[in-house]
Amino acid sequence: MVNLELYRVFYTVAKCGSLTKAAEELYISQPAVSQSIKQLENQLGVRLFNRTHKGMELSAQGGQLIFDEVEQALELLNAAENRMSEMRTSASGLIRIGASDTIFEYFLADKIVDFHERFPSVKIELMADFTPDTIEKLKANRCDVAFVNLPIEVDEALSLQGNCMRLNDIFIAGEKYKDLANGDTVLLADLKKYPLIMMDKHTVARRALDNFLGAHGVDLQPSIEVGSWDLMKRLVIRGMGIGIIPREYAMDGLDADDLYEVQTDPALPTRSVGMLLPKNTHVSYALHSFLEFVKKGN
Predict the structure, then answer these.
(1) What is the Cα–Cα distance from 169 to 50, expressed in whole angstroms?
(2) DSSP character string of the chain
(3) Which of 258, 251, 219 is nearest to 236 (CA)?
(4) Which of 28, 133, 204, 251 is the least crowded, having the fewest Cβ atoms under 10 Å away?
C-alpha cells in the first residue's frame, strides 16, 4: 500500500535540500524525517538521496527518476483537497428556519440578510409561528432550526443550543396613563386598577408572566388579550390599557415618546430567545454556517 506521507517527506527534502529545513517545514523532528526517507528507500529498494557538503541531493538512479511523478501526484492530491475544502466552505442547499414573527423581525431579519449576502447559494425558507407550533414543526422535521421564546419544557428529542437574545419584560403605558411612568415605582398589585393588555394565554410570554405573578401572590387579569406585540403597542398608544412587553420590542415607541415605561415593584424577570435543534440529526454545512453566523453575531 502506498504511504503518501513518506512521499510528502521525500518531496519536501528534495525541495529543501536539507533534512533540517524539511523537518522545520513539516513540523516534525529531523530523526523522523531521516527515518521516513530510510523507510521509503527500503520500500522501493533504491537509494533516493546522496549526502553532500551542500546537503541532500537526489540520486541519479533513484530520487531523480521518481521526483517528477511524485510532484505531479502530490499536486493532484492538493488540488483534490482544495476542491473538497471549497465545497465545505461554499455553503449551498436549503435551510428551514422556524420562529415567531417577532423573533424574525427583531432578532433574525438582519442576520438572515447578512448571511444571504455571504452565502447567496443557500436557499432560506422562513416558517413563522408561535413557539409551541414552531417546536412541533422542528420535531416533525418540517424545519431545521427553531428560535423560540424561553422558558420551554425539557424535551429529550431536542437540544437547546443556548440563549441568543435577552428579553426584559416591562409594563408600558400610552399618553392616557403616562402618569404611571413619572419615575415612581408602582406596586404590581396596584395595577389591578387599570385595564391590562396581555398576550394570549397560550403563548410562552403569557405563561411566564402568569407564573411570576402567581409566585408573588399577585392576580392580574387582562382586559384584552392579543396575539402580537405590534397590536399590543398600537392599543396601548391609543389608550386602551397598560401593556406588558419586552423592552427590546418596544424601543421604537419608547424612543418616539409614544410609549412610556412603568417601573414596578417587583420588576418583571428577564427572559430570552433560545435556539433549538433536533438531537442526533446531521447538521449540513449550510446550517452549521448559519448557526455560527448567529452565535457570533455577524
Answers:
(1) 78
(2) ---HHHHHHHHHHHHHT-HHHHHHHHTS-HHHHHHHHHHHHHHHTS--EEEETTEEEE-TTTHHHHHHHHHHHHHHHHHHHHHHHHHHHS--EEEEEEE-HHHIIIIIHHHHHHHHHH-TTEEEEEEE--HHHHHHHHHTTS-SEEEEEEP----TTEEEEEEEEEEEEEEEE-GGGGGGGSS--EEGGGGGGS-EEEE-TTSHHHHHHHHHHHHTT-----SEEES-HHHHHHHHHTTS-EEEEEHHHHHHHHHTTSSEEEPEESPPPEEEEEEEEETT-PPPHHHHHHHHHHHHT-
(3) 258
(4) 251
Task: Please report, in tens digits, the pLDDT of each residue of the chain (298 residues total).
Answer: 678 899 999 999 999 999 999 999 988 999 999 999 999 999 999 999 998 888 899 999 999 999 999 999 999 888 777 666 655 555 678 999 999 999 999 999 999 999 998 888 899 999 999 888 999 999 999 999 999 988 888 888 899 887 788 999 999 999 999 999 988 999 999 999 999 999 999 888 999 999 999 999 999 999 999 999 999 999 999 999 999 999 999 999 999 999 999 999 999 999 999 999 998 888 888 888 898 888 876 4
